[in-house]
Design a protein that fits this description.
The protein has 153 residues and is mainly α. Helices cover 44% and strands 4% of the residues.
Length: 153
């Protein structure tokens, strides 16, 4: 789990190698997959539901349909309140936190290159008017990180 642009894909590749001995996208030939296809070892929860809000039942059904003979790994940028709906007491969560300065720069580049975000402003504007006040795609970075770090085990 992580706030976007914090190293989620990097972490899922490591987990895939630890658990499966190969890249997350190995069946597709490697290359840093993001969890969008059925053949990837680490799936993206939000892609399974289409939306985070209210998507818990669909995610749980999808997770329950996957093979249980190997560990099932998922990634998400969802707030902890949704993750708690999707997990069981046996679930384990790895939270990846990255320096907010690095996240802001990476998110700005991401927002400028993805047509769906349609952003072409300067970094200073993005930082002051979007990232700092929590108007970025996953809300406030500080709240997201603090919620996970203050959660009970």
């Amino acid at each position: 789990m992580s706030y976007p642009k914090s190293g989620t894909t990097w972490c899922q590749e490591i987990l895939s190698y630890v658990i499966h001995g190969e890249s997350n996208s190995a069946p597709l030939g490697g290359g840093g997959a993001v969890g969008l296809t059925e053949t990837e070892h680490v799936r993206w929860m939000e892609a399974l539901t289409g939306r985070v809000e209210g998507g818990a039942p669909a995610v749980v059904r999808t997770m329950n349909d996957l093979p249980t003979n190997i560990p099932r790994c998922f990634k998400s940028h969802a707030p902890l309140e949704y993750i708690k709906q999707w997990t069981t007491p046996k679930s384990r969560v790895i939270y990846v936190a990255r320096n907010p300065k690095d996240v802001a720069v990476s998110m700005w580049h991401h927002s400028c290159t993805k047509k769906s975000f349609n952003y072409d402003g300067p970094f200073a504007h993005f930082l002051e008017n979007i990232f700092m006040p929590g108007r970025a795609e996953s809300g406030n970075w500080w709240k997201h990180v603090a919620t996970y770090f203050s959660a009970e085990n």
